[in-house]
Write a structure and sequence with these properties.
single chain, 8 helices, mainly alpha
Length: 250
């Protein structure tokens, strides 16, 4: 059996009777096909994000902002559906990317107004990290073994519990400000999240390349692309936050 990634998108096994039947049809997953579909989703996300920047130059910006944040909510709903129904990734992957583009674009625009140029900086840094993870995985510098999966899985659980605790505290009017400010602790936590997200890229790549070797069904290309998309969006957001913290200390 293929080892699954610590990415939440890959924590449920998408391989069942249906997957086995499709694999027997001769249409199998390839890394190249998965990357092509990831490219489509990235273009959809960037197009949606650029749309936010374009609308920002019009008087309708304030009316548009709630729609942008709703994009994040619908994106989360679509992601949950895909995680539980992997075969729907082909139909819902691009809509998910469009929804997330609205959220990412809005966050980027908000910080761009305070720190000009930060959005493109975050994009470049995210691309560099992803490329570095690809090189280290393909050269064997980082191995996606059980130890790494255990470490990343534990870290993801810790991050989830931290944000859940923060949400519960906010219901009582208390805020964990260190999660969002530029204090040393806040920056350290954000840097740690960047590291964990970067390691998730390695595990996602391992899923994709091992899926190709195992001859998984062709539709799993969309699911693999979706999982990588989830990680890249998270990585970009954390990089964006870290850069904002660094520039806020200037």
């Amino acid at each position: 059996m293929i080892r699954t990634s610590s990415n939440p998108a890959f924590t449920r096994s998408p391989f069942g009777r249906r997957g086995g039947a499709l694999a027997m049809s001769g249409q199998t997953m390839t890394a190249e096909g998965t990357m092509n579909k990831l490219g489509i989703m990235l273009l959809a996300c960037m197009g949606s994000a650029f749309g936010v920047f374009w609308v920002a130059a019009t008087p309708q910006l304030q009316a548009f902002m709630p729609i942008a944040y709703l994009g994040g909510i619908f994106g989360l709903i679509l992601a949950i559906v895909i995680i539980f129904k992997p075969h729907l990734a082909a139909a819902l992957g691009v809509p998910y990317a469009l929804c997330e583009g609205l959220l990412v674009g809005t966050m980027s625009l908000t910080l761009e107004s305070a720190y000009p140029g930060i959005a493109i900086q975050a994009v470049v840094v995210t691309m560099m990290i992803a490329a570095a993870m690809m090189v280290m995985y393909r050269t064997g510098m980082i191995k996606a073994n059980n130890k790494l999966r255990s470490i990343v899985g534990s870290a993801l659980m810790g991050i989830l519990m931290l944000y859940l605790f923060s949400f519960l505290m906010s219901l009582f009017g208390m805020q964990l400000t260190f999660l969002y400010d530029s204090s040393p602790l806040g920056m350290l936590l954000t840097l740690a999240m960047v590291v964990v997200a970067s390691l998730c890229v390695v595990l996602d790549l391992d899923f994709i390349f091992k899926g190709e070797k195992m001859g998984l069904p062709k539709e799993m290309e969309w699911y693999g692309a979706f999982g990588m998309m989830v990680t890249l969006i998270w990585l970009y957001i954390e990089v964006l936050r870290l850069l904002a913290m660094l520039r806020g200390r200037d």
